[in-house]
Each structure stands twice: as C-alpha cells, then as structure tokens.
Design brief:
10 strands, D-Maltodextrin-Binding Protein, domain 2, 239 residues, disordered N terminus, 5-stranded mixed sheet, 10 helices, elongated, alpha/beta
Amino acid sequence: MLKKLIVITVVFVMAAGAFAADEVTVAAGAGYRKLVTEMAAYCEKKEGIKVNMSFGNLGQVIAQVKASGLIPVVVGDKNFFTKAKLDISDFQPIGKGKLVLAWRKGIEIASADEITADKIKRLAIPNTENAIYGIAGTQYLASSGLAVKVKEKLVVVATVPQVNSYIAAGEVDAGFSNLTDTMGIADKIGGYIEINEGYAEIPIVAAFLKESEGSAAALRLKSCFADAESAKIAKKHGL
C-alpha cells in the first residue's frame, strides 16, 4: 500500500511539473492590458500554453518582478527596463508607444496648447516617476513651455487606465494617456489627439528575463510575439 502511495505521489508531482512547464507569467504596464490580454489569448491558442498576467504602473511591475523572481517576461518601455537594471536575457520588439491628450465629452480641443484655456480646469497625468506616459507627458510639458502654465491644474494618478477612467467619468477635463488604452474607450470620451514630439521615443518590448531561460513556455511565447499575427494585434492597438 505504501509503495502504491509513493508511486501515485511521484506521478502527481511529475504531472504538476509538466503542467507548470506549459505556463508562463507576463507582467505589463497597466496601459497595455488590452494589448497584452489579446496577444496572450492568441499565443495560448497557437502555442498550447497558459499565460498568467499581472498589471500595474511600471514601477510597481518592476518591484514585483524583483521581489518575486517568478516573473520571466515583462512588457513595457525598453528604456525603463534598462534603467531599472533588470537581468534581461533578450528583448522582443512589439511597437512604438504614442502619447495622446484625451478630453471628456462636452468640450472640444483642436491642439494640445489648449490645455492652458479656462475650459481645462483639471488635467490628469499618470505618475510622473513610475509610469511611462507620466514621464512622457512631463517631458512634453517641459519641451513645449506649457509646464508652468498648467502646474496648478495637474492631477497625478497612478496609471494610464486611471487617467482615462477619470476622463470618461468627467472627473477631469483632459489628461495625458497612451494611444493603446485610449483607443479602447474612444466612445466614452470627447476625443483625443496624438502628440508626436517633445518626449523621448517609447520602444515597447517584451523583456525576457534570465528566469525565462530554460522555460519552454517562455520560448514559445517569444516566438509567438515575433510572428505576423502578433504584429497585427499590436498595430490594431495603436503601436
């Protein structure tokens, strides 16, 4: 009976190990939730793997990655990952991030410099230290000379989705976001315009950490992220 129990236990452990080998965890900036979710669903179907996901501002994401040691893939700004000194094995390019200015229903904005107008009383921006588009928005305000003029209007929130949520609810008049997340709520806001200058280029990548080496699921995910269908998904989401 004991021998039979040992055999059953060994088989169970081996089965659990095999299941785990087909799983990979991906963390990403919250502004890319819809993009990563769609790419993950496609890759799960194509590669026969399970993709677990975690989202937050990149500061939170990187802290989670460093603390757990269990997240082998991170999606977001390549430059941010490099500065964070993550132990990265390789990068898989996904696209180029784009800053946008979005506004609530009931007002119209023809150009970004209209954020100085009286109709804009509250201007949301993602966390200016840990969110890519908070950094990009801050760079744009500085380079355009608008920073001092809108300083008293700024409302700092944690993530891009929170900016868009505030705009959709009418809690702020406008805000800086990314094209990817804003496209997903276009019917709930007044509109948006792309800002194509005044901030550093934002290369969006999947960073494969050292933890991904030896993982069959991570290798298959990387191959999937590099294929033509994933490129179409990225383009669909504004990258």
